Amino acid sequence: MSKILLFLYKLMYIFIPIPFFFDFGRFRFLYIKIDDYDFIADSPIIPMPIGAIAFFLSIIIGYISAIANPNLFRSVFPPAKLLIFYSLVVLPLSLYIVFVSDLSLPRLVQLILPMTFISLLSFPVLMKDRLGVLKNTFLSAFLFFNIHFISVISTSVDFLNVDPNLEYSNIFGILIYQSLITYPAVMSLYLCLTLAMIYVARKDILPALSKYKYFYYYFLFILLYLLAVSGRRAFLVEFISAFMVIITFSIVYGISRRYVAKKTLWYFLLFISLFISFFIFYINTPVSQRVLESIRENTFDSGRVDILGSAFDFFTNNLLVLFFGGGERDIPGFHNFILDQIYRIGLIGFLSIYITMGLLIRRFVKTNDLGTAYRYQRSMFIFILLSSLFLQSMINASVSQPYYFVNFLVVSMLVYFVLFTQNKVKNKSLV
Predict the structure, then answer these.
(1) Sorting pLDDT into bands at 50, 70 and 90, what band is 422?
(2) DSSP labels for 118-168?
(3) In what helix (H) or strand (E) does residue 21 lie, and over which residues does it extend?
(4) Which one of 54, 223, 283, 409 is CB 3.0 to 4.6 Å from 12, fit for a cystine?
């Protein structure tokens, strides 16, 4: 039974990167030809990515496995402590949000569901099983994004001047739901994962991954191309942000060690050269046309900076809303995940929810971390992911979408618990 559950757990991760949705409102899959798409008639009522459904099933399978065989899986809470957590934390927070912040039931579910997911999280103990999860997830992303790449190249009139709405937002004529919002944000996550895998392969941290290193370089090219031609301004912000994080961490690491090997320095300079080369290519080709036009017209932020000023004025004049929330009443629509959350449930509810989630994540990490000799490097890639999460929260509402949230959790777990874990460290921690 344990082997069957483990097999099913790994199988679920194949579906997570795929942006295929099921509409629970109409109870049908979103399989729409781009030429027949009608925004009003075809807009889903309750869209849910199959990856989120698969992730939920993996959580249930993993939790049952953790109860049945703790040597194969480790979870955040055993059943008794989980019941106490729901009774003393989740229930009071839910009552506060409904009766004090006056939030609707669907919004409450959207807010509490991530906390529920995290409280039930579990992860395999053995390294070979963790590598199985990584390989299934990465292979699925690799195949899907490659199919999209082939579709864009073969159907676009000019592969450097792709129409985001007609040529980018579909795969051979089949619509990709959320193709210009959440989909590129998820690709950015897998770009970070691929960079981390390239680093791990180069350092030979996990020998099982080293033989595929040329596939990682190829996939990096695919992801950069798809992100560039999407025309999304958020990509440029995330790309530059990730570059600055890597540069800063590398310089601090070199100064703290007071020694840098020539080979390491050569790779560092090569990375900078490749970044600059891509950036020069990006701004001097039609792929950046939409972004450069927005800069020239002073609309790059789409009013996001002005929204911050408006939000400050609104909250200073509505202190009760600032602290206790305004529920669904006359929501200003800040187009900013953090500000919208503060409006709906107030600072008290916002801090209570996300501090609780932070503590749950900390417990999950302590339970499943097998140790690593590459703490600094691991921290750098996790910081890149957290920076991406923060930028998406400030720029878009992607972080509130299940497709992004699930893929963020999965990529973060793979980076933290798999890529920088060594077998010798694992064996030591399990004795």
Answers:
(1) low
(2) HHH-EEESSHHHHHHHHHHHHHHHHHHHHHHHHHHHHH-SSTTS--IIIII
(3) strand 21-23
(4) 54
Q: Which two tokens stand for residue 69?
A: 């065989």
Place of tokens 């864009």: 152
Please write the tens of the pLDDT for every residue from 73-89. Answer: 999 999 999 999 999 99
| Residues whose CB falls within 8 Å of the CB of residue 221, separated by 6 or more in sequence, listed in order | none
The residue among 408, 404, 426 whose CA lies nearest residue 417 is 426
Q: Which residues contact 184 (CB under 8 A, 6 or more apart)?
A: 226, 227, 230, 232, 234, 235
- Cβ pair 332, 314 in contact under 8 A: yes
All residues at 6 or more sequence positions from 206 whose CB lies less than 8 Å from its CB, including other chains: 131, 200, 418, 419, 421, 422
Share of the chain above pLDDT 90, in %: 45
Contact 63, 367 (CB under 8 A): no
Q: How far apart are the C-alpha atoms of 382 and 196, rounded to whole Å? A: 10
Query: Which residue type does 23 have?
Result: D
Task: Compute the distance between CA of residue 380 and CA of residue 246 in angstroms, rounded to an integer.
Answer: 7
Contacts of 146 (CB under 8 A, 6+ apart): 219, 222
Tell me the residue type at 207.
Answer: P
The tokens describing 182, both together, are 């959440």
Distance (Å, rounded) from C-alpha 282 to C-alpha 293? 14
Q: What is the mean pLDDT of residues 315-336?
A: 75
DSSP-derived 3-state class of residue 51: helix
Residue type for 124, please? Answer: P
| CA contacts within 13 A on the Cβ side of 243 | 16
The candidate with the shortest Cα–Cα distance to 73, out of 137, 2, 169, 138, is 2
pTM: 0.89
Inter-residue contact 162 to 289 (CB < 8 Å): no
Other beta carbons within 10 angstroms of residue 84's beta carbon come to 11
Residues 63, 74: Cα–Cα separation, whole Å: 8
Q: What share of residues in the chain are helix, strand, coil (percent, to 5)?
A: 70, 5, 25
152-181 residue pLDDT tens = 999 998 888 898 888 899 999 999 988 878
The whole-number average pLDDT for the span 283-295 is: 83
CB proximity list for 6: less than 8 A, separation 6 or greater: 65, 72, 124, 129
DSSP label of 28: E
Separation CA 69–CA 112 (nearest Å):
28
- The C-alpha atoms of residue 223 and residue 245 are separated, in whole angstroms, by 19
